[in-house]
Amino acid sequence: MNKKIxxxxxxxxxxxxxxxxxxxxxxxxxxxxxxxxxxxxxVYLYDAELFSGNWSTNAEYVLTIEELDLGFEQPKITMSLxxxxxxxxxGELLSKKVCxxxxxxxxxxxxxxxxxxxxxxxxxxxxxxxxxxxxxxxVAEFKLIHADDRKHVIELERIHDKWNVLPKTIKLAKxxxxxxxDFKELSEYCAESSQRFFEKLKKVSSxx
Length: 208
What we know:
- By secondary structure, this protein is of the alpha+beta class.
- 38% of the residues lie in helices and 28% in strands.
- An eight-stranded antiparallel sheet has the order 3-2-1-8-7-6-5-4.
- A hairpin with a 2-residue loop joins strand 5 and strand 6 (135-148).
- The longest helix is centred in the first third of the chain and has 19 residues, at 3-21.
- The termini are far apart.
């Protein structure tokens, strides 16, 4: 049986046992259910300490690159994430190919909704979105296939990619030494995406 499900069953059993053995405190137990559920989600569905922070794929300057298992070719990608008290994840993702594919927007986000009941069994999903006509439009979807709390490494698998600009799997680590340099490089590149796009349009128009 899935280890995650076993842990959940154990937690639920302990909660029920405590509830039954303290029946006289019925009202107190009912009142504490929301807080217990919030703690339950924190332990088994998401880890704010893990996901919150700066993520990237470039393991340059890392001495323990083999331990992180990032010693393979990946495009430079940076991702900055925040987690609120409900477990919702929001942030931004930068990649040259993504910015080239979405040159007319200044906002490219990476979000994951609050974990629900289905998250006890199924993998967590992340959505890459762009701002279009005043609304956030999903352009790619990923699922979390691995999360290492100790090494601070996560791995995402692509489910859908409208523009086919991101690899099948992306492995990122938190607070890598090259993050600041990579973020600066990608920010400057993405800031010029619109200009490059219109220059290409001009060249095509002049040829025609």
